[in-house]
């Protein structure tokens, strides 16, 4: 047997191996320590701010602070749109849990309508669970107390205080101020960073147009919370910046007077200051209460408004429009003078019917036998159609449109309301887009001269153009906001508007047109001479009637005998005082009959309210003429004999206060007379009613036929032209 071989240990090699292994282990440990130190350094130094913020976020939550919405005032400083404290219920779906469990329980504590629940469910499905959703707006004080007792039962349900929009005169300014409403998905898309924070936004009117200024800037509060997420205390805040305040040019007293002047009739009216383009009053009737929409209108109220045939939500001044009728004649007359086709003294023979050369079809005047020879002034005062038939035909539609565009028609007035209608300026180009197979007929040019045919004009455009005639030819941009301030203690800054444009380069031409408009009211044969009765100031204007049905031969129809929906549209444009105008108006009465008998008396009441501070005394009816029997009217005062006038004293504007006092003193000095509150027969510097021309105040009974002198005529035979009584578009 071989003996085993003995292996000797190599101590040096083992020592070298141990040292190598120890060095490797030490290097690994050192690398680990260095890596760990580097990691700690990164956490504690480099990323300290980030992790400190995350840590703080577990304890402190940011809560947005919605700024107070800017207030809206009238020109006298009276609040028209206010903010009042209120409470709402917000729910965070992620914290609240299954709504099928807690909603019925909450409904036993707080009154929740089916609409509230449906709206919440729709928003819950469309938004992320960690975002609060409004369940109910305007929680009553009783509900607030009841919820506070049972609050512990509803995690994720919070009672939040906020400022609720309120309109003290909701229906009076519905179509001017508009309203705010609940934010919807479409609104959130345009809000950007404000989405999910704001609950309300401007929907219509000035609230919509000036939304960015009225909204303000959102602030934030840093709220410390407990482990349940309940707020404990505020640890910091970034204050919100309130929205800007708006001061309007509208006067609330005049606005009330305009509504009262219409009585039960539907229509619209605009009153402007011709010197500045400021809107003094603007009504669209019927109206509605804007407070219904602030926190969501009920289905019953919404159905009632939508089914109302009078369309109370429709803004007739901004979105509406129709044929202007004879209210266009002053502008057509000015175009005739500026184009060189007419001089003020040139006369045209009105035989009762006008014919285009070579055609048999006739275009009638308001009087069957015609008006005889009339110049420019009488053509306006008597509303002679033949004068304008012939003038429009000679001018041609292309040149006609150029002048009408210069006077502000076929374009927006620039008023600070969204969606303003531009109307329709009759032209071959416009017709070609509508009917490519049919050309432009001369008869369509003829009837365009009296405001019929394809014309669509808004009351805003009429008021703006009339103001330009009144102020010497300056076409102003209409605007509702007079001044803006960005803080309660900040100064009011005037609203910037575009500079006016000039509608004519010939002041003498404008003077002739103004004289014709003044003769419309104060002349012996003017179509609105009923306005002059008892007036202590002189006015200028033009009546208009847009027919809906044709006449039978030479016999004028009494529009009040027709079915309501077939009655003519009654219009009036004018300004006062004639010597130094401070107010210009446009009045449109739907289904009102004739402009001279319906729209003109409304305008007179508006003038009285602004110049004399006298509120309307009577309310016209939809089914009866607005003109009283002249046998019972006092020439001096314009009041019905034997009746005590119900004059409501209101603030008189500016320098007129002294004039009223002097006039009342003059009335008191007359035998058997006593002064009335803010009423007077004459203004200082103007002749008394008896000293004016005899035809102005006592021109006799203005019969229905005379009051209809501005009514357009129906063609007698076919020329291919559109009928003069084409329905309103």
From TrEMBL:
Pathway: Cell wall biogenesis; peptidoglycan biosynthesis. It is a single-pass membrane protein. It is found in: Cell inner membrane; Cell membrane; Membrane. The chain crosses the membrane at residues 20-41. Its EC number is 3.4.16.4. Residues 66-234 form the Penicillin-binding protein dimerisation domain. NCBIfam families: pbp2_mrdA (TIGR03423). Keywords: Carboxypeptidase, Cell inner membrane, Cell membrane, Cell shape, Cell wall biogenesis/degradation, Hydrolase, Membrane, Peptidoglycan synthesis, Protease, Transmembrane, Transmembrane helix. It is an enzyme of class 3 (hydrolase). Residues 267-607 form the Penicillin-binding protein transpeptidase domain. The active site is at residue 326. Residues 676-729 are annotated as: Disordered. Belongs to the transpeptidase family. MrdA subfamily. Gene3D superfamilies: DD-peptidase/beta-lactamase superfamily (3.40.710.10), Penicillin-binding protein 2a (Domain 2) (3.90.1310.10). Catalyzes cross-linking of the peptidoglycan cell wall. This is Peptidoglycan D,D-transpeptidase MrdA. It comes from the Bacteria. PANTHER family: PEPTIDOGLYCAN D,D-TRANSPEPTIDASE, PEPTIDOGLYCAN D,D-TRANSPEPTIDASE MRDA. It catalyses: Preferential cleavage: (Ac)2-L-Lys-D-Ala-|-D-Ala. Also transpeptidation of peptidyl-alanyl moieties that are N-acyl substituents of D-alanine. It comes from Lysobacter firmicutimachus. One of its GO terms (molecular function) is serine-type D-Ala-D-Ala carboxypeptidase activity.
